[in-house]
Amino acid sequence: MFVTKAMTRKVVTVRPEDNLLDTRELMKTQKIHHIPVVEEGDKLVGIISDRDVRSAMPSTLYYESGSERERVKLEKFTVRDVMTKNVITLSLRDTVQDALLLLLKYDIGALPVVDGDGRLVGILAVRDLLRALVSVLGIGQPGSLLCLLVDDKLGETKKIVDIVFEEKIPIGSILVARHWEPGKRAVFPYLMSINVGALKRKFQEKGYTILDPEEWYLEDVERTKEEGVP
């Protein structure tokens, strides 16, 4: 999925010369954590986060006890004084997968999307990515998540799909994840039905190992820590 399908297009922006206190209030009223900073023609020149604002501004206790001179000084701070200038961005050709990797790599919460001329066209925040994943995985509707342990070889996922279709149960999505046992994979079909008892029995009759999705994850996280697997 391209980022253009998941990004927020109506972006709240500020200018470099805007007052920092006003920007903090804008974040509160709009309930957002990141605001792109633009100049004329929507040219992206920076980004400011609520973390940046908190780092620059003292607590409310300071305003009650600090000197008048210091308070006046703080009120003169602008967005330019604290914004991040070297912005990590996405292009219109990037995918949601690209965005996920960048967010993890740089430990950030949002990525502005720019066109070929560096003009802001959208922003992709963690909330947008979660919304996209809910849509892609089909988990916005009631259903059941199974976890099946299979051999790590071609054709195993198709076998699972065929068995599910035989029971006439719609599939919302299928994820395939690593399993720490050599030669094995865990397959997670999300089924658009809560009545999957008969299907689970059919999988067991065919020799499949059914795992609890939550226990599978927790057990393997602990095993990874013990074995030192990155």
The overall pLDDT average reads 87
* Helix vs. strand class: alpha+beta
The CATH topology assignment of the largest domain is CBS-domain
Number of helices: 10
- Succession of helices and strands: HEEHHHHEHEEHEEHEEHEH
Euclidean distance between termini CA atoms: 28 Å
* Global outline: elongated
Beta content: 15-25%
**How does CATH name the architecture of the largest domain?**
Roll
Give me the CATH superfamily of the largest domain.
CBS-domain
Any idea how many domains? 2
Extended strand count: 10
Low-pLDDT stretches are none
> Can you summarize the main beta sheet?
5 strands, antiparallel
CATH class of the largest domain: Alpha Beta
User: How many whole angstroms does the radius of gyration measure?
Assistant: 24 Å
Fraction in helix:
40-55%
Which key phrases capture this entry?
single chain; 230 residues; alpha+beta; CBS-domain; Alpha-Beta Plaits; 2 domains; five-stranded antiparallel sheet; three-stranded mixed sheet; 41% helix
